[in-house]
Design a protein that fits this description.
Elements lengths: L1 H106 L2 H7 L1 H22 L17
Helix pairs in contact: 2-3
């Protein structure tokens, strides 16, 4: 009914022009809407790219910090290994000294010797006590500790 009225008013040629105008308007409106959506999508993508760049910088900083921490942990581990090796050498020296003392006590009757020559036993015990104190001091991180060598005998 509307088409018949428009055809009567505009004629057949006018109807064709109206159709072309309508088609052009639809294309223009569709292009405008599509362009607006594309601009919006581009803005969203730019914002996301900015966020991702900031996250990449943060991750790079974190990786650099963790690499420094790894170096520090490796150095601490190496120091710990050196401490363990030093402590094992001290323990080996202490075990050697203990075995020598045990051998001496097995070979000699210290009680009889102490009754006969108390001054001799007292000197040996005093030197042994001083050596034990020095070894205990070194084992607990004290100062003035000689570098232990396996199989060495302390001076008297």
């Amino acid at each position: 009914m509307l088409a018949a009225l428009v055809t009567k008013f505009l004629g057949a040629k006018g109807m064709m022009y109206l159709g072309i105008i309508a088609l052009v308007l639809v294309v223009l409106v569709g292009g405008y809407l599509a362009t607006g959506r594309a601009i919006h999508n581009y803005a969203v993508l730019e914002a996301n790219a900015t966020i991702l760049k900031a996250q990449i910088v943060t991750q790079q900083q974190t990786i650099a910090a963790e690499q420094k921490n790894a170096v520090a942990w490796k150095q601490a581990l190496d120091d710990y290994k050196a401490d363990v090796i030093r402590d094992q050498a001290i323990q080996a020296d202490a075990d050697l000294q203990r075995s020598k003392i045990d051998d001496a006590f097995r070979k000699h009757d210290v009680r009889a010797l102490a009754h006969k020559r108390p001054d001799l036993v007292e000197g040996v015990l005093n030197r042994g006590s001083l050596r034990a104190q020095r070894m205990l001091n070194c084992a607990t991180g004290g100062t003035d500790c000689p570098s232990p060598t396996v199989g060495s005998t302390p001076s008297r």
